[in-house]
Write a structure and sequence with these properties.
Number of helices of chain C: 18
Strand content of chain B: 5-15%
Strand order of the largest sheet of chain B: 1-4
Order of helices and strands of chain B: HHHHEHEEE
Structural class of chain C: alpha/beta
Helix content of chain B: 25-40%
Largest interface: B-C, 32 and 45 residues
Oligomer: heterotrimer
Strand order of the largest sheet of chain C: 1-11-10-14-12-13
Radius of gyration of chain B: 28 Å
Radius of gyration of chain C: 42 Å
Distance between the termini of chain C: 95 Å
Distance between the termini of chain B: 108 Å
Shape of chain C: elongated
Largest sheet of chain B: 2 strands, antiparallel
Shape of chain B: elongated
Helix content of chain C: 40-55%
Chain lengths: 193, 185, 618
């Protein structure tokens, strides 16, 4: 139990996938201009990550490893992720066409989100069991969502504030992201994972 | 050799499983027609004036959905451009001057002394805001008139004026800054 | 409801709650509350706007040139949300025209202009002396007839407020007057406390409320004394003294002070069982019911350090602001501002002909030293003092950012419409940002956008219905054509004689055409003019024939009928007989030509026709 708790703390704060490991920056910068879009993206990514880390563990454990097909890991993981994302896309399109349009190209881009593939591969590297893989994937997703929503909230306020003109737009967003990253460095050493 | 066979087999099986899942999902979560055009149409001011170059607001909404510029509507003005930009997820552009300038709200007024009752303006009005019949006095219902200007052209005696709408005090639009009083005798 | 009962207990116990925020600007009340209420000398013309309240207006009952008596009703009030206006003096209506309104925009609004006459007479009053035995509707109708609307500043029709469908437990009389400089309620309470309490009793009776609380700020000790004395021995009345803070006099803030309850966003105090009225309105209620007098005057404070004698006056409604200023010894400086209302919520008077209306409580003429002009707006330093000062617990800083960015969605999320525009945030802002100005502009923009949306939705529906109608009509036409074509085809098949008839008719038409062509070739005129003359000749011949026929018929009926038809026919005959001369002479000239001449004439005619065509095309 403690183990899962520490795993969560590690993935959400200490080794946050976006701000510490610098994975998944594309949707982080692209979708965070409005809170509603950010929350939608966060939920979609959580769904994809959890499901993907689950299925990639299963495929790795029951198909690839027994048949000595480790070299197929990358391609099969990408296949899994692509299928899950496609499924998610259909669900979002059906349930919330507005969100679907707002997310635009970033929804299918979750497929190429390095955080998703990263989670799957890191699970294998760390030789997690099934439960640990799920928690790891879920924790990574929670960390991603947390930072995404925080960043979106700040960007909304920055959008209407009196930013000097050379800094307007993506420049101030990058600087803010960097400052957030510095802040999260404060968690370093909290959990030795 | 065997391992390649296993690899191919594994991938094929995976592909079949995933294909089945996706196939089922595509049927289960099928989405009908895109409501984007309707949502865009709701944002447009419905004057049906044609200043955007399209014969009405719905055709322009369809054009925007197909990628046309969003800054062609003068009666909608800046507010409409901003709303469309928010909906489409594109940047808001200033109004395209080639399609007209943003003006005060106007309504049509028929000078009744000169009206000959030809019904040409009634046929032109896209919202049926003109009351009248052949050889009977025509008049504009102010509450329904959108100020689209389409009735002015067809009138053979040129008796229609576009008059700015008077705003009542309760709807007075505050402007910044207020004018300080200079002289009091 | 249980909290209500303990609430009443708590109210009886002298407990005062608090509301968040608020400011303490210098009161400046001692300028104008040292003297009793004076009477304003009458002026020549009174400008009575027909709309001095929140709501709509009904018909005007007088015309230009009418003589009106004092207190006579000038407008009708049958529609909902209408309040009539009355003539402040007896005189003549000299105009009913747009005149500068008592509004920040100074836009001209319909105003009845009355020229005061020397002979002052009032119409007979219609009091309801035994009001305690009257029912709510009768009293509310009288209140409406006497033209009462809220005198605290908003101008809500009083008869609607007191005729609330919801159960009311607490009536609050607002004598707080928190805004600096203004002392009109203060002096009214000092001098007319009994009348105010009587008005309160009438309101209690109308509302059937359990308790009436009169709230006064602690900077008005004489008024507190006066009201307390007037309340002695009267059941259900309580005087509560609240600490001086701006804006304690705001409706929602005062309710929070006295009851600890917050009026939820979007609700009205009646939802909590509370009704609030200004003490001036209570006084007017007493006058309306017991004396039968309509609302034609009110106490107005004339103050500021650019008037030499700051004071309170009984001003008749419709008196131009210039009269008040002159009476108080106006001494304008360069770029003098005159404010109608107080320094926090008042607006600048742009035209001194602006009249005093039911909601005018103060005319302020400050010096630029005491009340500095709006400074230059600087950048927001995000200090947050505005959020500390806001009595409605809003976030003025965020509202300001969104207002500047015109982000209507976010403004509504941050409850822009709960802002009471008190000005506390702008007062404390170190960067001198005119915050309330931004909020007002944004509110107007949002309201406009909502109106536009309603309008465009309506237009869309109408457009679509019109399209449908045109479609339907087209379909109907096509169907009709088809049906009639089918019918015709069927009829032809059934009745072959019809076919023959049609064939015969066509043949006849053809023959006629051919005959006509021959005739025209035979009698060919030499020139185009003679062509026209021949046409005229034919027409005239027809007319002659008609006249002859008529003459014959008239001769038949002339025995039985009067001379008129004969005269008609005679008259008709006259011009025709005149015409008769001409063609006859012409016809005598034209003899029937020979064959050779015929051909020549034909050629000449053809040439002439071609020339005429050429001339036409040129």
């Amino acid at each position: 139990m403690t183990e899962f708790f520490l795993l969560l703390i590690s993935t959400v704060f200490v080794n946050n996938f976006v701000l510490v490991k610098f994975l998944g920056l594309c949707p982080f910068m692209g979708v965070s201009s409005k809170i509603e879009t950010a929350m939608g993206m966060a939920m979609a990514t959580t769904f994809v990550l959890t499901l993907a880390s689950m299925s990639s563990y299963l495929i790795n454990a029951y198909i690839l490893q027994p048949l000595d097909l480790e070299f197929l890991r990358t391609i099969s993981f990408i296949l899994v992720i692509a299928v899950v994302v496609q499924f998610t896309e259909m669900v979002v399109h059906k349930t919330s066409p507005k969100l679907y349009r707002l997310l635009g190209i970033f929804l299918p881009l979750i497929t190429t989100n390095c955080a998703v593939l990263g989670v799957a591969l890191l699970n294998v590297n760390a030789e997690h069991n099934f439960a640990q893989s799920i928690v790891y994937g879920f924790g990574a997703a929670v960390g991603f969502s947390l930072v995404l929503v925080l960043f979106a909230a700040m960007r909304e306020r920055i959008a209407v504030a009196d930013v000097p003109s050379p800094f307007k737009g993506s420049a101030i967003a990058m600087i803010t992201a960097g400052l957030m990253s510095l802040a999260f460095l404060g968690f370093a050493g909290l959990v030795s994972f | 050799m065997q391992i390649i066979l296993y690899a191919l087999l594994a991938l094929v099986i995976l592909a079949v499983i995933f294909g089945a899942v996706l196939g089922y999902a595509s049927v289960r979560f099928k989405v009908e027609a895109d409501p984007l055009v309707d949502q865009l149409n709701d944002l447009l001011p419905q004057t049906q004036c044609g200043q955007c170059g399209y014969p009405g607001c719905k055709p322009y909404a369809e054009a925007i959905a197909n990628g046309d510029e969003i800054n062609k509507c003068p009666p909608g003005g800046e507010a409409t451009i901003k709303n469309i930009a928010d909906l489409m997820g594109v940047d808001a552009k200033p109004l395209d001057a080639a399609h007209g300038e943003e003006d005060v709200k106007k309504v049509a007024y028929i000078r009744e002394d000169e009206c000959i009752g030809c019904t040409k303006c009634i046929q032109a009005c896209p919202v049926d805001a003109i009351v009248g019949a052949s050889k009977v006095m025509h008049t504009v219902i102010v509450d329904e008139c959108t100020g689209c200007d389409l009735c002015v052209e067809p009138c053979p005696v040129d008796c229609i004026d576009m008059v700015p709408v008077q705003q009542p005090t309760s709807h007075w639009k505050w402007k910044e800054p207020l004018i300080p009083i200079k002289n009091l005798s | 409801m249980q909290s209500e009962l303990s609430l009443l207990e708590q109210i009886k116990q002298d407990k005062i709650w608090e509301f968040p925020g608020g400011i303490h600007p210098p009161e400046q009340k001692s300028l104008s509350n040292q003297t009793a209420i004076n009477d304003l000398p009458s002026c020549q013309r009174y400008y009575v706007p027909i709309k001095q309240h929140i709501g709509s207006t009904d018909d005007i009952l007088v015309n230009v040139g009418d003589d009106v008596l004092g207190n006579q009703a000038l407008t009708d009030a049958n529609l909902a949300m209408t309040v009539p206006v009355h003539a402040p003096v007896a005189g003549k209506v000299v105009a009913i025209e747009p005149h500068v309104s008592a509004h920040a925009s100074a836009k001209p609004e319909l105003t009845i202009v009355i020229e005061r006459s020397d002979n002052q007479k009032t119409i007979s009053a219609q009091p309801i002396k035994k009001w305690a035995s009257e029912d709510r509707l009768t009293l509310a109708t009288q209140i409406k007839k006497m033209g009462l609307s809220g005198m605290g500043g908003a101008g809500f029709p009083t008869h609607i407020k007191v005729n609330s469908a919801k159960p009311i437990d607490v009536l609050i009389l607002n004598g707080v007057e928190c805004e600096p400089y203004i002392t009109s309620d203060d002096v009214l309470m000092r001098e007319f406390a009994h009348d105010i309490i009587t008005g309160g009793q009438i309101l209690q009776h109308v509302l059937q409320s359990k308790i009436c609380v009169i709230a006064i700020e602690d900077n008005k000790p004489e008024a507190i004394e006066s009201i307390k004395k007037a309340c002695e021995g009267i059941e259900g009345f309580k005087v509560k003294v609240v600490p001086t803070k701006y804006p304690s006099g705001g409706e929602k803030q005062l309710i929070q002070l006295l009851t600890g309850e917050q009026v939820p966003s979007g609700s009205i105090p009646a939802d909590l069982g509370i009704v609030m009225q200004n003490v001036g309105t209570a006084y007017a209620v007493k006058e309306a019911i017991i004396d039968g007098l309509p609302l034609t005057k009110r106490v107005v404070t004339i103050t500021g350090d650019r008037v030499s004698a700051s004071q309170n006056v009984w001003a008749l409604l419709g008196t131009p602001v210039s009269e008040l200023l002159l009476h108080a010894g106006f001494n304008p400086e360069k770029d003098q501002r005159v404010i109608m209302g107080g320094p926090m919520m008042g607006f600048a008077v742009l035209d001194a002909a602006m009249p005093v209306i039911k909601t005018t409580n103060c005319i302020l003429a400050p010096s630029a030293y005491k009340l500095p002009e709006q400074g230059v707006e600087q950048a927001c330093i995000r200090c947050g003092l505005c959020a500390d000062a806001c009595p409605a617990e809003l976030l003025p800083q965020q509202l300001q950012w969104f207002s500047k960015a015109k982000d209507h969605e976010k403004l509504e999320d941050y409850n822009l419409f709960d802002c009471i525009e008190c000005g506390a945030c702008a007062y404390v802002c170190p960067s001198q940002i005119p915050l309330v100005q931004y909020y007002r502009t944004s509110k107007a923009e949002i309201r406009e956008a909502q109106q536009e949306k309603i309008k465009s939705d309506k237009a869309k529906v109408r457009f679509e219905q019109r399209q449908e109608r045109l479609e339907r009509e087209k379909e109907a036409r096509l169907a009709k054509h088809k049906a009639s074509a089918e019918k015709r085809a069927q009829a032809l098949q059934k009745d072959t004689s019809a076919k023959d008839k049609i064939a015969a008719a066509l043949a006849r038409a053809k023959a006629k055409k051919a005959a006509k062509a021959e005739e025209s070739n035979a009698s060919v005129p030499a020139t185009v003019e003679e062509d026209a003359a021949a046409a005229r000749k034919a027409k005239v011949a027809e007319a002659i024939a008609r006249a002859k026929a008529k003459k014959a018929s008239s001769q038949e009926s002339s025995q039985s009928t009067d001379a008129a038809p004969e005269a008609e026919t005679l008259a008709k005959e006259k011009p025709t007989s005149e015409n008769k001369e001409q063609p006859e002479s012409q016809s005598s000239e034209q003899a029937t030509p020979s064959a050779d001449e015929l051909r020549k004439q034909k050629i000449a005619a053809a040439i002439a026709k071609a020339k005429a065509k050429k001339a036409k095309s040129d």
